[in-house]
Amino acid sequence: MHADENKMVTSIDVDRVSAVLRKLALGHLKFEYGEGVTEDQISIWCAPLSTLSEEDEADFEEFNHGYNILPEIGSRAFDDYCKGQPPSWWIVQEGRYRYSTAMTDGFETRIVLRDYLAAIAVFK
């Protein structure tokens, strides 16, 4: 752990964290879209929010939540689409866990853990 410009950064075991993020992202994909993919179809990126530039953090928070194709009929995402509700951040527990999903060329899940770790899982 070290302090850099009043920001706390810690080292992590990337493989272990990636495995957890992969499972969370798979669950969100199945929950929101009713879609299943295999773990080898996922690429994971993660970094502490405090290490992102203001521009990168804004891009992470406000990424394109649109649809290029309609979600599967009967899925939670399709229900939201029919109600006119665009995809947004789902706050599971304030300050501890939130996620967002998008369906464009593939699927994407963004996760924030403890307002510290930002993650993006891309499914192709």
Structure description:
Helices cover 28% and strands 31% of the residues. The protein is globular. It starts with a strand and ends with a strand. It is built from 3 helices and 7 strands, in the order ββαβααββββ. A hairpin with a 2-residue loop joins β1 and β2. It has one domain. The protein has a 5-stranded antiparallel beta sheet with strand order 3-7-6-5-4, covered by helices on one side. The longest helix is centred in the N-terminal third of the chain and has 20 residues. The chain is α+β, with helices and mostly antiparallel strands and 124 residues long. 19% of the residues are buried.
Kindly estimate the percentage of residues that lie in beta strands according to DSSP.
25-35%
Q: What is the approximate shape? A: globular
Evaluate the radius of gyration: 15 Å
Order of helices and strands: EEHEHHEEEE
User: Given the structure, what is the number of helices?
Assistant: 3
Sum this structure up briefly.
This protein is an alpha+beta fold and 124 residues long.
Name some characteristics of this structure:
single chain; 124 residues; alpha+beta; five-stranded antiparallel β-sheet; two-stranded antiparallel ribbon; 3 helices
